[in-house]
Design brief:
The protein is of the alpha/beta class. The protein is built from 19 helices and 12 strands. The chain has helices spanning 3-7, 33-36, 76-79, 103-111, 154-157, 159-163, 182-189, 219-225, 230-240, 247-250, 291-294, 303-319, 332-335, 338-350, 360-368, 381-385, 399-407, 428-436, 448-452, and strands at residues 40-41, 53-54, 95-96, 172-180, 205-213, 217-218, 256-258, 264-269, 282-288, 323-329, 390-394, 411-415. Strands 4-5-8-10-9-11-12 form a 7-stranded mixed beta sheet, sandwiched between helices. The protein has a 3-stranded mixed beta sheet with strand order 3-7-6. It binds zinc ion (ZN).
Length: 461
């Protein structure tokens, strides 16, 4: 099915109508069966329960009232707001809805009768604690393609649209916090860090600005980053999510997608405005989620020790007049998910010869079909949102991340590896495999013989 063929005949006859589009409309012939059907349901959330409701489809043009999005426009007014609300269908100008994967929990809350689907967020006192941007990078349509640079400021920049009744929600929130980690307290006790009362208290609390960011994808440029056509990207997203978003293939006029995936969180040590000043030393780590190590201290990988080492470096950097940044992405288990990850652990430890670095990537590929699904192509967007032009100290050994960041036009100075003494014994397999595969190391790259030596624990040990 061609996107253009289907979307060239939207049904304009039911603006804001609560009922499904006319199944006789010309475009419905090309729609999947489920999307073309008009289905009656018993009321779900219905304080004034009455007649059965129809399912409201979004696979046809909703009618009039949707504001245009001009991705990469110079000002918020010209760009236009992202409207992913389900309250007023005619106002929607994107595919999908807010909160990433949590949109499904929102649906559950509505289904359970706990949430009124017409609820509009009261945004009183929710504005960002720190101003980010605007920066010149925001108006380069190819520079930021996977988040909304105006997403934290909607209450200010789209105040007239909000007053006109559009349900516009922030996709970014910025707040402040104290973070207290045992590793940082230990660094204070052993003298590696010193309290200053400004960036780090005597009790070991680090002062941070933190930002939560939901994904907002501009599909034409996302496709370009992955080297495929927009039509192919839309079709595969539709098919591989089990047909979750029919508009991907029926509404080529909607170019923005709010995907049902995890977003990212930023922790900023020092003044967030300094991130955009290439004269101020920036220490940064981009960290992909590893719940087992990050939270529970599982010792099969280096994720938590590398993360806490980076936080220590960020605090030290802020204390000497610089700024620090941890960008934490929800890409659990190389974006393969924890079930796949744990299956791979078993496959590694049960294979003949034990857990060896020479089979590290092969075991992942056996289970998942690929070694890694994180695809760092979209990752640098968040740096451009922050106005970053130079990272003086990148606390990462990943060649994929280094290439993605420098390839997007950001200069990188020094690369900071994880100190040897922080690598857990069982994680030696991972480290050797990654260094042999091209990860940055200031030391020797392990040779083929070294990689064959079993270094991981057995499953029952
Ligand atoms: Zn890990």
């Amino acid at each position: 099915m061609s996107v253009d063929t289907v979307s060239s005949s939207p049904n304009p006859s039911s603006p804001g109508s609560p009922s499904a589009p006319n199944p006789q409309s010309p475009s419905s012939a090309a729609l999947p069966d489920a999307a073309a059907a008009s289905v009656s349901l018993s009321p779900i959330y219905a304080p004034n329960a009455g007649a059965p409701r129809h399912i409201r489809l979004t696979s046809h043009a909703g009618g009039f009232g949707a504001l245009p999005i001009r991705w990469g426009a110079a000002t918020a007014t010209e760009r236009g707001p992202i409207v992913g609300t389900t309250t007023t269908r005619a106002h929607r100008n994107v595919i999908g809805t807010h909160s990433g994967s949590y949109s499904v929990y929102r649906a559950l809350a509505v289904a359970a009768g706990a949430l009124n689907p017409q609820h509009k967020a009261d945004l009183t006192n929710t504005s960002p604690t720190d101003l980010i941007g605007p920066y010149p990078q925001w108006s380069d349509p190819g520079r930021i393609v996977s988040l909304d640079p105006w997403g934290a400021a909607v209450a200010d920049v789209f105040s007239s649209e909000l007053a006109a009744g559009y349900d516009i929600r922030p996709t970014i929130a910025v707040t402040q916090a104290h973070v207290i980690l045992p590793e940082v307290i230990e660094a204070l006790q052993t003298g590696r860090l010193k309290a200053d009362g400004k960036f780090l208290t005597a009790g070991g609390a680090a002062m941070v600005t933190k930002a939560a960011i939901e994904p907002v994808w501009f599909l034409p440029e996302v496709a370009r980053r992955f080297g495929c056509s927009e039509t192919d990207l839309r079709r595969v997203l539709f098919e591989e999510t089990g047909g979750m978003y029919p508009e991907l293939v029926t509404r080529s006029d909607l170019e923005v997608f709010l995907p049902p995936i995890g977003g990212q969180t930023l922790y900023i040590f020092g003044n967030p405005r300094d991130l955009a000043n290439p004269e101020v030393e920036l220490t940064a780590r981009i960290h992909d989620e590893c719940n087992g190590s990050d939270v529970f201290g599982s010792d099969i990988c280096t994720c938590r020790p590398y993360l806490t080492h980076a936080i220590e470096e960020c605090i030290r950097g802020a204390q000497r007049g610089g700024v620090g940044l941890i960008a934490y992405s929800r890409k659990e288990g190389r974006a393969l998910g924890e079930v796949t990850k744990f299956l791979v652990y078993n496959a590694r430890k049960r294979q003949v010869g034990g857990d060896t670095a020479d089979q590290y990537f092969a075991r992942t590929e056996c289970v998942a079909g690929v070694q890694d699904m994180r695809f760092q192509e979209l990752m640098p967007d968040v740096f451009h949102w922050l106005g970053i032009r130079k990272i003086h100290r990148l606390v990462s050994m990943s060649n994929l991340k280094f290439d993605a960041i420098t390839g997007s036009g950001i200069e990188i100075g020094e690369r900071v590896n994880i100190p040897d003494e922080l690598i857990p014994a069982d994680a030696r397999v991972e480290m050797d495999a990654k260094m042999a595969a091209g990860y940055f190391t200031p030391g020797a790259v392990p040779d083929a013989e070294e990689l064959k030596k079993a270094k991981g624990r057995g499953l029952s040990e």
